[in-house]
Amino acid sequence: MNPIEEKPINKASFLDALIPISVLICLLGAAVYLFGDSSSSGPNQIALLFATFTAALVGLKNGYTWKKLEQAMIEGITLSLGAILILLMVGALIGTWLLSGTVPTLIYYGLQVINPSWFYAASCLICGIVAMSIGSSWTTAATIGTALLGVATGLGLDPVVTAGAVISGAYFGDKLSPLSETTNLAPAVVGADLFEHIHHMLWTTVPSFIIALIIFIVMGFNASAENEAGRIDEITLILEQNFNIGLEMLVPLIVLLALAIKKMPAFPAISIGAVIGAVWAMLFQSDLIASQIDVSQGHLIGYFKLIWATFFDGFNIITGDEKMDSLLSGGGMAGMLTTTWLIMTALMFGAIMEKTGLLDIFVKSILKIAKSTGSLITATIATCIGTNVIAADQYIAIVVPGRMYKDEYEKRGLKPVNLSRTLEDGGTITSPLIPWNTCGAYMQSVLHVNPLDYLFYAFFNLINPLLAVVYAYLGVKILRIKPKQHI
């Protein structure tokens, strides 16, 4: 045998697939137990790396060369580069919008108009409308969501419930927007029409959203706002003392929303929003900047240095109120590096699992027991959720199950929109609920709430997959075609 010939690839077994999954689950559980809420700041990344090495060892055992496995990991990381660019620029945007007074102004006016009794429902609805308009749950959470968390703090309401409301609204709007990447991706994978796909999603999405809104309304009426009036006055005074507040401070937000509606790609749109935030800071927050700069090199250089630092290191302020300092400080590209690390390690693991055929093992095992339409759709949702957990990316959770189940749906006479809707019900919706998923990691980085905490309050994201399963077993809005004949 030629020494340079590659060994034949052996077919992976169910045990092969189970080993790296078991390692990952055990290590992630240990990370949460040992490090608590800080597990996403390094421990989870190490868990994913060790699980990746375990999967690679299984691949080497089955005949894959290290070169092929390494290439798969590199390609997996490449998939995340677009998201990482957006993530870094969102960090810059948050920093400049804090310094410019855009976020403080949103908080200021939000405290004046939003009543605590319907705050959670209003947050959910506002985020839904904005996300549907711009097609981005990420941008919605980083802008409107961040401000709503500030309003919740002012009203003395639970930030975890607020984060759940923000996530629910953002993903409802994103899911039904023709501008959304995932809404375009799902029908493209299965060969369905975009607008037929959106229309078909209404049957599971709208009832789920209405139920979520009702729950948030009930929770709002039962919520207690501690020292509401006095605390709101305190926060309002702090904002007025430290920032110039006015409707003109909302121009960066209006420009960003307009660019998104005009279908400008997310990275340049958010970059423009961040730059406008910096310009607005220089125009309208001169007193604040003057109190922050180092004048040893001159005022002009001090101004330039502070604005520059805000892009990469965020903005920090000392108001004398610890909670307000935390609320009004943050952002910067550097603050997103831990999340970037998490995304890269998660996609490395997902890429190895797909390359070595270990993901496919689970799907084939599921199809053996998914005999009815109800069980097939349930299996698809379970696969999407599992892929979100294992591959840690919503795009992979749409594309991989879509490819795997497409022929089976055709074979059983199910119209492609059934599969495209199910991919969103199981893949898009559940991605922000998993801490090491790209979406979960992103939401934690901008909302500063652990996905394991807001998981129980993201009612729309929990109800939608369950309602899809109920529809599947009852045969509600399951569209059929003539079964595809396989020779």
Structural class designation? mainly alpha
Number of helices: 24
Mean pLDDT: 85
Q: Biggest sheet, in brief?
A: none
Shape: globular
Gyration radius over CA: 24 Å
User: How many strand segments?
Assistant: 0
Question: What portion of residues belong to β-strands?
Answer: under 5%
C-alpha end-to-end distance: 38 Å
Poorly predicted ranges: none
Tell me roughly what share of residues is in helical segments.
over 70%
H and E string: HHHHHHHHHHHHHHHHHHHHHHHH
How would you explain this protein's 3D organization?
The structure is a single chain. It is built from 24 helices and no strands. By secondary structure, it is mainly alpha-helical. It is globular. The two termini are 38 Å apart.
Output the keywords:
single chain, 487 residues, mainly alpha, 24 helices, 0% strand, globular
Sum this structure up briefly:
With 487 residues, this protein is mainly α. Helices cover 74% and strands 0% of the residues. The chain has helices at 14-35, 43-61, 66-79, 81-100, 102-113, 119-134, 137-155, 159-176, 181-190, 194-222, 228-242, 251-261, 266-284, 286-292, 299-313, 322-328, 337-355, 358-367, 373-390, 394-411, 416-428, 438-447, 451-454, 459-474.
List the helices and strands and how they pair.
Layout: H1 14-35, H2 43-61, H3 66-79, H4 81-100, H5 102-113, H6 119-134, H7 137-155, H8 159-176, H9 181-190, H10 194-222, H11 228-242, H12 251-261, H13 266-284, H14 286-292, H15 299-313, H16 322-328, H17 337-355, H18 358-367, H19 373-390, H20 394-411, H21 416-428, H22 438-447, H23 451-454, H24 459-474
